[in-house]
Write a structure and sequence with these properties.
390 residues; alpha/beta; Alpha-Beta Plaits; Rossmann fold; 3 domains; seven-stranded mixed beta sheet; 17 strands; globular
Amino acid sequence: MDDSVSKPTNCNAVRCQLEMGESLHLALDKYDLLNPDWKPLRKRDSLILPLKSGLKDEQLRVLKDLSFEVHLINQEFEKAELSNNPHAQLRRMVSNWLADTSNGAELEVLVSQLPQKWERYGDMIVLPERAFESDGWSELLNRCSESQVEALWRCITKALSGKRLARQHPIAKDIFRSSQTELLFGESGWVEFTDHGVQFGFDATQVMFSSGNNTERRRIGNIPMDGEVVVDAYAGVGYYTLHMALRSQAMHVHAFEMNPQSIKGLQWAIKANHLENKITVHHGDNQLLLPNVYAQADRCHLGLLPSSEHAWEHAIQCLKPSGGWLHIHMNVQEDDIESWRTATLEKLEILAEAHGRKWSIESQHLEKVKWFSPKVRHVVLDVHCRSRDA
């Protein structure tokens, strides 16, 4: 055996508190920074993850923008075993499939085009939108029989330790912003999994769920909301509704959603998490239904992207006359974040005055959740409104 295979090797790495290890791993995987060739290392209350070599400063910038503390270090790692290395397993098993099926195709080129990241919902593996859609792969799969293609999807599913396989597609341009995820292997799109102690269930081919918002769901669930009435204007399958009701201990959450497929998942999760007495689901257009809870809320969550501005005026009126909190999600150009923050507070002040709310409106925190595109951020602005007469 080649001694270099098992000999520990120094490489660049990033360290975080153990409890944030899952979030860091997701971030590194999402931005293709994680080196799968080395075993992650746990030291007491820290997790150390190996980075790919040759990364540029702009690629590492994502580490500076995480909502928790990380440290760049140099660390000695041991080689990852194939059984613990899904990237190696994927390359090996697809290479075997190609050897039997490719009919002269350039194996090395096709293997080099295998996806480097994917998402996992329970036992379902969800590949990126462009996975296996390069010219080389498209040409090969078009020549293959249906049984050969099914064999490929089966071996990928097995390599990544799943039971079903799907591929992302762009979100539909309908009023529901429906998922168009394509099921490649398996019989059902329904998935069930646990996220920071909260159970979720939904049909991944019908509704969307962003694992990239993992840190924001964790953050919202860590905000104490004891005794509060909360309005979630865009509940979806309960991305934030469930965390606020279960982990933040809100007294009651009014969840507004118009997509019947999302509501199916939300209602399943309400039962699974035993929250029947803490969440009321309002099925329909929030523009028509939000007036039903005017002046009742201590907090309003506005989680629609690319913009939640359509509901700001309703949110102002949903808060109690004494004020409360707004959590405003938005996609904003990186260079415009501060000017957007200022403009948003000014708009909220105008809306509040128009409805007789004599409030002081302040920006308490701005969370940079993730990069939506190379120059655009998904941000959340926490706004506190309080009566000037208080």
